[in-house]
Design brief:
Layout lengths: L1 H12 L10 H9 L9 E8 L11 E5 L10 E4 L2 H9 L4 E3 L1 H8 L7 E4 L4 H5 L2 H4 L17 H9 L2 E5 L5 E8 L4 H17 L10 E8 L5 E2 L2 H5 L3
Parallel strand pairs: 3-4, 3-5
Antiparallel strand pairs: 1-7, 1-8, 2-6, 8-9
């Protein structure tokens, strides 16, 4: 099996110029040509930022709604009371309620990809923080998942919201659509994502903000991007 994979990967590598820094347009065209899996692969962007997340002001974290969506079906749960829970359900939330959802989480039942909560319920949500945190599911005001506007939050989550967070080494990794998307949709999603990262550049970050960037598919080699072009996306 491994021989088969390495042969396939080798053939894909021959389509990539490892020395070249591709423009966004060229990179997307190239990765579309690298499709080899039997499923609709995700187009993934990886950025290495010149920040030190140990400093609070250099912790890059937020969310952005991609104009063409992510191509994924997202299951959304909302922890809210009464009228707010009803609003969330009407907006398309898969699960909405209060204590019963917390009990499910405590029992290890988490049938959702995104968790939204109203601020008044965060005391209750905090009880299961140790379960939600490691899975990246803890609601956070920075990603718009702690809010009284549950309707907008549900629409964002269902409509292509991507949450991003820099790791301790300064890396950010996110899916920006599927390989089956059109070139134009992928370019729009890519530019929207990079623009959101650029807007978060800390005043205290010195030197070149985006040090390295690459684009790839779930099962493909990566294509290096021209970081100067990325820095110019506002």
């Amino acid at each position: 099996m491994s021989k088969k994979v390495s042969k396939r990967f080798k053939e894909l590598l021959e389509k990539v110029d490892r020395e070249k820094e591709y423009s966004a347009t060229e990179a997307i065209k190239t990765v579309k040509d690298l499709k080899s899996a039997k499923f609709d692969e995700t187009v993934e962007v990886a950025l290495k930022l010149n920040v030190d997340p140990r400093h609070a002001d250099q912790m890059i974290r937020g969310s952005v709604v991609l104009p063409a969506g992510t191509g994924k079906t997202v299951r959304v749960a909302v922890i809210a009371k009464d009228a707010k829970a009803d609003e969330a359900k009407a907006a398309g939330a898969d699960i909405a309620g209060g204590a019963e959802i917390i009990e499910d989480i405590q029992a290890g039942k988490m049938d959702f990809d995104v968790l939204i909560a109203t601020p008044d319920m965060m005391g209750m949500v905090g009880k299961v923080g140790r379960v939600l945190g490691p899975k990246g599911l803890m609601p956070n005001p920075k990603t718009g998942t702690v809010t009284m506007d549950v309707v907008q939050a549900v629409k964002n989550a269902k409509g292509g919201q991507v949450n991003f967070r820099v790791d301790k080494h300064g890396n950010i990794h996110a899916g920006i659509g599927k390989v089956s998307f059109t070139q134009e949709d992928l370019e729009n999603n890519f530019k929207t994502f990079v623009s959101a990262i650029n807007k978060q550049k800390p005043a205290s970050a010195k030197g070149r903000y985006i040090k390295h960037a690459a684009l790839s598919l779930t099962m493909s080699p990566s294509v290096n991007l021209d970081t100067q072009e990325l820095l110019d996306i506002k």
